[in-house]
Design goal:
Layout lengths: L4 E6 L5 H17 L5 E5 L7 H10 L4 E6 L6 H17 L4 E4 L9 H16 L6 E6 L5 H18 L3 E5 L7 H10 L5 E5 L6 H12 L4 E2 L7 H21 L1
Parallel strand pairs: 1-2, 1-3, 3-4, 5-6, 5-7, 7-8
Protein backbone atom coordinates (compact mmCIF):
# COMPACT_ATOMS: atom_id res chain seq x y z
CA UNK A 1 0.00 0.00 0.00
CA UNK A 2 1.50 3.35 -1.04
CA UNK A 3 1.66 6.27 1.39
CA UNK A 4 -0.92 9.05 1.01
CA UNK A 5 0.19 12.05 -1.00
CA UNK A 6 1.01 15.18 1.02
CA UNK A 7 -0.39 18.60 0.14
CA UNK A 8 0.87 21.70 1.92
CA UNK A 9 -1.98 24.20 2.07
CA UNK A 10 -0.86 27.81 2.36
CA UNK A 11 -3.10 30.85 2.63
CA UNK A 12 -1.75 32.31 -0.59
CA UNK A 13 -0.43 35.73 -1.57
CA UNK A 14 0.24 37.84 -4.61
CA UNK A 15 3.72 38.31 -3.13
CA UNK A 16 6.11 35.78 -4.68
CA UNK A 17 8.17 35.75 -1.48
CA UNK A 18 5.27 34.15 0.39
CA UNK A 19 4.56 31.43 -2.15
CA UNK A 20 8.31 30.88 -2.39
CA UNK A 21 8.36 29.85 1.27
CA UNK A 22 5.61 27.27 0.70
CA UNK A 23 7.43 25.95 -2.36
CA UNK A 24 10.65 25.74 -0.34
CA UNK A 25 8.92 23.67 2.34
CA UNK A 26 7.58 21.34 -0.33
CA UNK A 27 11.10 20.97 -1.75
CA UNK A 28 12.55 20.23 1.70
CA UNK A 29 9.93 17.54 2.30
CA UNK A 30 10.59 15.95 -1.09
CA UNK A 31 14.28 15.82 -0.24
CA UNK A 32 13.49 14.18 3.10
CA UNK A 33 10.96 11.76 1.63
CA UNK A 34 11.74 11.17 -2.07
CA UNK A 35 9.20 8.34 -2.05
CA UNK A 36 6.40 10.76 -1.13
CA UNK A 37 4.40 12.89 -3.59
CA UNK A 38 4.44 16.42 -2.15
CA UNK A 39 2.43 19.29 -3.63
CA UNK A 40 1.60 22.88 -2.66
CA UNK A 41 -1.88 24.45 -2.84
CA UNK A 42 -3.41 27.72 -1.67
CA UNK A 43 -6.62 29.01 -0.15
CA UNK A 44 -6.65 32.36 -1.98
CA UNK A 45 -4.68 34.81 -4.14
CA UNK A 46 -2.39 32.08 -5.54
CA UNK A 47 -2.67 28.97 -7.64
CA UNK A 48 -3.13 26.07 -7.71
CA UNK A 49 -6.10 25.69 -5.42
CA UNK A 50 -6.57 22.56 -3.35
CA UNK A 51 -9.33 21.09 -5.53
CA UNK A 52 -7.13 21.36 -8.62
CA UNK A 53 -4.19 19.66 -6.88
CA UNK A 54 -6.31 16.85 -5.43
CA UNK A 55 -8.05 16.25 -8.77
CA UNK A 56 -4.62 15.99 -10.40
CA UNK A 57 -3.43 13.51 -7.78
CA UNK A 58 -6.57 11.43 -8.28
CA UNK A 59 -6.00 11.42 -12.05
CA UNK A 60 -2.44 10.21 -11.41
CA UNK A 61 -3.78 7.22 -9.50
CA UNK A 62 -3.55 8.34 -5.87
CA UNK A 63 -6.45 7.38 -3.64
CA UNK A 64 -5.43 9.14 -0.39
CA UNK A 65 -4.24 12.65 0.37
CA UNK A 66 -3.16 14.30 3.62
CA UNK A 67 -3.55 18.09 3.72
CA UNK A 68 -1.29 19.96 6.15
CA UNK A 69 -2.35 23.62 6.61
CA UNK A 70 0.60 26.02 6.77
CA UNK A 71 -1.17 28.30 9.23
CA UNK A 72 0.26 29.57 12.51
CA UNK A 73 -2.87 31.17 13.93
CA UNK A 74 -6.41 29.84 13.91
CA UNK A 75 -9.47 32.01 13.41
CA UNK A 76 -11.53 32.15 10.24
CA UNK A 77 -8.91 30.68 7.93
CA UNK A 78 -8.52 27.56 10.06
CA UNK A 79 -12.15 27.12 11.10
CA UNK A 80 -13.90 28.04 7.84
CA UNK A 81 -11.58 28.42 4.85
CA UNK A 82 -9.62 25.18 5.27
CA UNK A 83 -12.70 22.95 5.71
CA UNK A 84 -14.38 24.67 2.73
CA UNK A 85 -11.32 24.03 0.56
CA UNK A 86 -11.21 20.38 1.66
CA UNK A 87 -14.92 19.95 0.89
CA UNK A 88 -14.36 21.43 -2.58
CA UNK A 89 -11.45 19.04 -3.14
CA UNK A 90 -13.57 16.05 -2.14
CA UNK A 91 -16.29 17.16 -4.54
CA UNK A 92 -13.74 17.57 -7.35
CA UNK A 93 -12.33 14.08 -6.77
CA UNK A 94 -14.96 11.95 -5.00
CA UNK A 95 -12.89 8.78 -5.35
CA UNK A 96 -10.02 10.04 -3.21
CA UNK A 97 -9.84 10.12 0.60
CA UNK A 98 -8.77 13.55 1.90
CA UNK A 99 -7.55 13.80 5.50
CA UNK A 100 -6.68 17.11 7.16
CA UNK A 101 -3.80 17.27 9.64
CA UNK A 102 -3.73 19.94 12.36
CA UNK A 103 -2.29 23.32 11.32
CA UNK A 104 1.19 24.36 12.45
CA UNK A 105 -0.31 26.42 15.27
CA UNK A 106 1.18 28.67 17.92
CA UNK A 107 3.63 26.17 19.38
CA UNK A 108 6.10 27.39 22.03
CA UNK A 109 8.75 25.52 20.01
CA UNK A 110 8.56 28.23 17.36
CA UNK A 111 9.92 30.77 19.85
CA UNK A 112 13.39 29.24 19.42
CA UNK A 113 13.08 29.85 15.66
CA UNK A 114 11.91 33.41 16.35
CA UNK A 115 14.92 33.92 18.64
CA UNK A 116 17.24 32.98 15.77
CA UNK A 117 15.58 35.54 13.51
CA UNK A 118 15.69 38.24 16.21
CA UNK A 119 19.39 37.58 16.87
CA UNK A 120 20.06 37.94 13.14
CA UNK A 121 18.30 41.30 13.09
CA UNK A 122 20.20 42.50 16.16
CA UNK A 123 23.53 41.61 14.53
CA UNK A 124 22.61 43.58 11.43
CA UNK A 125 21.48 46.56 13.54
CA UNK A 126 24.56 46.21 15.80
CA UNK A 127 22.41 46.12 18.92
CA UNK A 128 23.95 44.35 21.91
CA UNK A 129 21.26 44.69 24.60
CA UNK A 130 17.49 44.97 24.73
CA UNK A 131 15.04 46.58 27.14
CA UNK A 132 11.86 44.97 25.75
CA UNK A 133 10.34 42.86 22.99
CA UNK A 134 7.22 42.97 20.84
CA UNK A 135 5.70 39.76 19.51
CA UNK A 136 4.05 40.77 16.23
CA UNK A 137 1.74 38.46 14.33
CA UNK A 138 -1.34 38.43 12.11
CA UNK A 139 -4.50 39.65 13.78
CA UNK A 140 -7.78 37.86 14.32
CA UNK A 141 -11.25 38.75 15.55
CA UNK A 142 -11.31 35.40 17.37
CA UNK A 143 -10.54 36.01 21.05
CA UNK A 144 -9.14 32.48 21.32
CA UNK A 145 -6.39 33.43 18.87
CA UNK A 146 -5.45 36.61 20.74
CA UNK A 147 -5.49 34.67 24.02
CA UNK A 148 -3.13 32.05 22.55
CA UNK A 149 -0.79 34.77 21.26
CA UNK A 150 -0.86 36.43 24.69
CA UNK A 151 0.18 33.13 26.31
CA UNK A 152 3.03 32.83 23.85
CA UNK A 153 4.09 36.40 24.66
CA UNK A 154 4.14 35.64 28.39
CA UNK A 155 6.30 32.58 27.78
CA UNK A 156 8.71 34.59 25.62
CA UNK A 157 8.89 37.20 28.38
CA UNK A 158 9.75 34.55 30.98
CA UNK A 159 12.42 33.03 28.76
CA UNK A 160 14.24 36.35 28.25
CA UNK A 161 13.28 38.10 31.48
CA UNK A 162 12.15 41.08 29.47
CA UNK A 163 8.76 42.77 29.12
CA UNK A 164 6.94 41.54 26.02
CA UNK A 165 3.89 43.13 24.40
CA UNK A 166 1.87 41.24 21.79
CA UNK A 167 0.79 43.15 18.70
CA UNK A 168 -1.18 42.48 15.53
CA UNK A 169 -0.71 43.53 11.95
CA UNK A 170 -4.48 43.67 11.34
CA UNK A 171 -7.91 43.44 12.98
CA UNK A 172 -6.92 43.35 16.66
CA UNK A 173 -5.15 46.12 18.62
CA UNK A 174 -2.49 47.12 19.37
CA UNK A 175 -0.53 47.46 16.15
CA UNK A 176 3.22 46.74 16.31
CA UNK A 177 3.92 50.47 16.13
CA UNK A 178 1.56 51.19 19.03
CA UNK A 179 3.21 48.46 21.10
CA UNK A 180 6.69 49.89 20.45
CA UNK A 181 5.53 53.41 21.34
CA UNK A 182 3.95 52.15 24.57
CA UNK A 183 7.19 50.47 25.66
CA UNK A 184 9.22 53.54 24.76
CA UNK A 185 6.80 55.72 26.74
CA UNK A 186 7.56 53.48 29.71
CA UNK A 187 11.27 54.27 29.34
CA UNK A 188 12.31 51.23 27.27
CA UNK A 189 14.67 52.52 24.61
CA UNK A 190 16.03 49.33 23.02
CA UNK A 191 12.86 47.57 21.77
CA UNK A 192 13.09 44.77 19.21
CA UNK A 193 10.19 43.26 17.31
CA UNK A 194 9.89 39.55 16.59
CA UNK A 195 7.92 38.94 13.38
CA UNK A 196 5.81 35.89 14.12
CA UNK A 197 4.72 35.39 10.52
CA UNK A 198 5.52 32.29 8.53
CA UNK A 199 6.48 34.16 5.36
CA UNK A 200 7.13 37.70 4.19
CA UNK A 201 4.27 39.62 2.64
CA UNK A 202 2.12 42.72 2.96
CA UNK A 203 1.35 42.21 6.65
CA UNK A 204 4.92 41.49 7.74
CA UNK A 205 6.20 44.44 5.67
CA UNK A 206 3.62 46.79 7.19
CA UNK A 207 4.39 45.48 10.68
CA UNK A 208 8.09 46.18 10.19
CA UNK A 209 7.43 49.63 8.76
CA UNK A 210 5.19 50.66 11.68
CA UNK A 211 7.65 49.24 14.21
CA UNK A 212 10.66 51.09 12.81
CA UNK A 213 8.69 54.34 12.51
CA UNK A 214 7.79 54.00 16.20
CA UNK A 215 11.45 53.60 17.18
CA UNK A 216 12.17 49.87 17.25
CA UNK A 217 15.91 49.22 17.15
CA UNK A 218 15.47 46.00 15.14
CA UNK A 219 12.71 43.98 13.46
CA UNK A 220 13.26 40.33 12.69
CA UNK A 221 12.47 38.60 9.45
CA UNK A 222 9.50 36.19 9.47
CA UNK A 223 10.13 32.59 10.55
CA UNK A 224 10.59 31.48 6.94
CA UNK A 225 11.98 28.04 6.16
CA UNK A 226 13.46 26.26 9.16
CA UNK A 227 14.30 22.64 9.88
CA UNK A 228 12.22 22.62 13.08
CA UNK A 229 9.09 23.44 11.07
CA UNK A 230 10.02 20.89 8.39
CA UNK A 231 10.20 18.24 11.13
CA UNK A 232 6.81 19.26 12.49
CA UNK A 233 5.17 19.23 9.07
CA UNK A 234 6.47 15.72 8.45
CA UNK A 235 5.33 14.59 11.89
CA UNK A 236 1.83 15.98 11.36
CA UNK A 237 1.66 14.26 7.99
CA UNK A 238 2.78 10.93 9.44
CA UNK A 239 0.24 10.99 12.28
CA UNK A 240 -2.62 11.97 9.94
CA UNK A 241 -1.52 9.40 7.33
CA UNK A 242 -1.48 6.66 9.95
CA UNK A 243 -5.01 7.59 10.95
CA UNK A 244 -6.14 7.53 7.32
CA UNK A 245 -4.64 4.08 6.79
CA UNK A 246 -6.26 2.82 9.98
CA UNK A 247 -9.67 4.00 8.82
CA UNK A 248 -9.27 2.54 5.32
Amino acid sequence: MSAPALVLLGYGSRDARATGVVDAYAARLRARRPDLPVSAAYLAHSSPTLDVVVAGLAAAGHDEVVVVPLLLTGGRHASRDVPAAVDAARSAAPGIRVTTAPRLGLRPTWLSVLDERVRDSLRVARVAELDALVLACAGSADHRVTAAVARLGRLWSQQHRLPVLTAYAAVAPPSPGEAVRQLRAEGRRAVAVGSFFLAPGVMSDRSAELSLEAGAVAVSAPLGVHEALVEQLLHRYQVAALGALTLA
